[in-house]
Amino acid sequence: MRRIFLSFVALLALVSYGYAQGTPKTKAQLNTEVGVDFADNTTGAITPALLRAVINDIVASYLDPLTIIAGANITITGSLPGGLTIAAAGGGGSVANPTATIGLTPVNGSASSATRSDGAPPLSQAITPVWTGIHAFTNDARFKNGEPWADVKAWGAVCNNVTDDTAAIQSAIASMNAGGGTVYFPPGACKITSTLFITGSVCLVGTNANASSIQAQADFPAIDFSAAVSYGCIEKLSVFGYVNNAATNPTVFVHANAVVNMRDCRIWGGGAALYTLGVDGVIENCFIGGAGTGPASGSIVSQGANWYVRVKVDTVGVSTTSGFYQANPAVPGTILENHFVQCDFSGSYTYSVKVDDAAGNSAIMVFDGSVFNSPINIANAKWVAFNSAEIGNTTLVHGAGALTIGNSFAFSATTVSGAGVDRHCANNKNITC
């Protein structure tokens, strides 16, 4: 910088002297007297505009390139007209802990890392960006923190249905269990070999149920929501369990009193696709199909109380005991209120619906605008109601508790059978109570 200053002072002094004497210096004379190498050495007077250009050339010649001596600490504030190049003299060395804000984009690098311009190995630490405003990413970007949201691939999942992604997904879930948040599954099939445990308000969210999936390929619960979960969820995601009649474990298990919502999802396979002891959850627009054939198995097995809206309950290519099986309450003496709105029980089952709460004093079941293809068995219940139902099988058994059927239609003449006597039927077609 001292050399720049002296050259600048000398140039100004000579030019000023020339003008004062009335004899302006030519460019050739300045070359000789000052030692400045002009781009054009032809004769001619020095004008103010040319003087400014010369000064700019002098300054630029001494600032390009900028050499940073090892051990120096340099802080850049404001903005640069171009990129920031970090190069090591002699092709060695590195720059530790560089940071930059977006706008200071390193040469040959990206907005979040720097590549040395001399072709040597990358910097010892990537540049840490500070994001402001709106930024478009031209390449595939993964986010690991930025809570409360985590991409399973940022935690190491591959999701090619070959690599075991269990540990990576569980790590992503664990990062959200304490405070709650979203664990995102990009398109792909994420293979797991053991149960994923959720203990907090964690939502598992995919791109859509046809693109993003969790694949459990043996007889174990794929997902376990603990009793401590409040407003956990599964959305836009498929969860595949063990698709085999020998399956004994559910694909998704919800513990007593947990609140878990499911939307736009598919839950497939297992002794029960969904086994829930949870309460107050909403299952909406999901496709649920189990594979179990045990006495207390089916697509959905419930010892809880939840809402089901536009849910399709089906089989997975193998005959299953029940579409929906309501068992005795997880907490004795609890009233189990399960409501179904516009649901489709059209799979091949022993029973589309079976209700057996053992004591006959807890299960309240309301089916509104739903479709049934297989027999219905109300063994024990407090009260079961069918309204605007479409019944496609002639077997409807009522063992105990109250039964109400109204404004409903059966494809063939159907007579309610069984020992139950508390029946109320009105405005039905082909149904006799």
Keywords:
disordered N terminus; 2 domains; mainly beta; 12-stranded parallel sheet; 4 helices; 433 residues; single chain; 34% strand; Pectate Lyase C-like
Task: Describe the protein's architecture and organization.
With 433 residues, the protein is mostly beta strands. The chain has 2 domains: 2-63, no CATH class; 149-432, Single-stranded right-handed beta-helix, Pectin lyase-like (Pectate Lyase C-like). The protein contains 4 helices and 33 strands. The chain has helices spanning 2-21, 27-34, 48-63, 166-177, and strands at residues 149-151, 160-164, 181-185, 188-192, 196-198, 202-206, 212-216, 223-225, 230-235, 238-240, 252-254, 259-263, 266-268, 272-276, 279-284, 287-290, 298-302, 305-309, 312-315, 320-326, 336-341, 344-345, 349-356, 363-368, 371-372, 376-380, 383-387, 390-391, 396-398, 402-406, 409-415, 423-426, 429-432. The strands form 3 sheets. A 12-stranded parallel sheet has the order 1-3-6-9-12-15-18-21-24-27-30-32, covered by helices on one side. It is elongated. Residues 1-6, 17-22, 66-73 and 76-125 have low confidence and may be disordered.
